[in-house]
Design a protein that fits this description.
By secondary structure, the protein is an alpha+beta fold. The protein has two domains: about 140 residues, P-loop containing nucleotide triphosphate hydrolases (Rossmann fold), CATH 3.40.50.300; about 170 residues, Glutathione S-transferase Yfyf (Class Pi), Chain A, domain 2, CATH 1.20.1050.90. About 45% of the residues lie in helices and about 20% in strands. A six-stranded antiparallel beta sheet has the order 2-1-4-5-6-7, covered by helices on one side. Strands 3-13-12-8 form a four-stranded parallel beta sheet, with helices on both faces. Strand 10 and strand 11 form a beta hairpin.
């Protein structure tokens, strides 16, 4: 799918905004705070179903009671999302739904400035990044994640109240089932990434360094039965804490640079090359598995990259539709 244009109404600081997109690369120029990222956010909502940074009430322009996003594609199709202050609805091929249908979601590679700090970020930030990545690759992963998060929320709510231990058993079963599924899928996806990571990194950095990602999990060697037993063993502690202290929601992804933890051993330039390599692999795996060229959204990352990495970024995504935000002309 190639975006022809996007129209925004009452979306963040945009009262009325229109952007006509090119089929290859479109550049949104402007000073910080003028709403460039908001345009990418709107595209993300209509391609993935929800924002990558906020809930709808926070997106609504102050003093207004609705927002509207309209995207027209080069094939003539128009998709619309509206929020009336309470509910968000999607109008897809003249059919109104409360959620963006799975068949109408389109893969996106989103590159934010904060992604360049992924290696040094918190484990929760890395989990969030890879959850979004893997959910695009495999709907089964997305469904297991949603079911796990729902069961985890319910179990944590139970833990904060007075109840019988047996009342929480059903949530333990669900956490064990979906937790093991997620762990297996995460391990497999990281193995696929690692197959390409060093070679892709070397194509950017022009050296012989080695890079890999080490997926770490409390449940790595667990069966579903082991997982369930551990949840039961931890019940008293969890009840006191008021939350579930064990599970795949504590997983992490550690980046290794020449067999050492990259956070501390890799330079600023080397870490940027690692993240660039990861983004290139993200787009490649999406194409391999879904046979679709993802839309690439680059939010002000050029200011964080030197000329060599800028050229590499442009070259690698030359076959994708790319929409870039920047405070300066990236061609300069």
């Amino acid at each position: 799918m190639i975006i022809k244009s996007i129209k925004l109404t009452n979306f963040r600081n945009h009262h009325n905004y229109f952007l006509e997109c090119k089929e290859n690369t479109s550049l949104i120029l402007g000073e910080n705070g003028c709403g460039k990222t908001s345009v990418l956010e709107a595209i993300y909502i209509l391609t993935r179903g929800k924002s990558f940074r906020a809930v709808d009430n926070e997106i609504l322009k102050r003093g207004t009671d609705y927002y509207r996003i309209e995207i027209e594609y080069v094939n003539g199709e128009k998709n619309i999302a509206t929020f009336d202050g309470k509910n968000k609805t999607f109008l897809i091929l003249d059919k109104k739904t409360r959620r963006l249908p799975k068949k109408n979601k389109y893969p996106v590679v989103l590159f934010l400035p904060s992604d360049l700090n992924l290696i040094s970020h918190s484990p929760s930030r890395r989990r969030d990044y890879f959850d979004k990545f893997f959910s695009q690759l495999d709907e089964k992963y997305n469904q297991n994640l949603l079911k796990y998060e729902k069961a985890l929320k319910q179990r944590n709510e139970f833990l904060k109240k007075e109840h019988k231990k047996d009342d929480i058993f059903s949530w333990n079963i669900l956490l064990a089932k979906y937790g093991i599924n997620l762990s297996k899928l995460r391990k497999n996806f990281i193995q696929e990434i690692n197959i390409q990571l060093t070679d892709t990194y070397r194509s950017i950095a022009k050296n012989e360094d080695q890079v890999e990602i080490n997926y770490t999990s409390e449940v790595e060697s667990f069966t579903e039965s082991d997982y369930l037993k551990q949840l039961e063993t931890n019940y008293e502690k969890d009840h006191i804490l008021g939350h579930t202290s064990f599970g795949v929601h504590h997983d992490d992804y550690l980046f290794l640079f020449n067999h050492k933890i990259a956070n501390g051993s890799a330079s600023r330039g080397e870490t940027r090359s690692i993240i660039l390599a990861l983004k290139f692999i993200e787009a490649d795996l999406i194409y391999q598995k879904l046979h679709l060229k993802p839309i690439v959204l680059l939010d002000d990352v050029f200011s964080e990259l030197d000329e060599t990495r800028r050229r590499c970024l442009i070259k690698n995504f030359q076959d994708n539709q790319v929409i870039i935000t920047s405070v300066e002309d990236v061609n300069n």
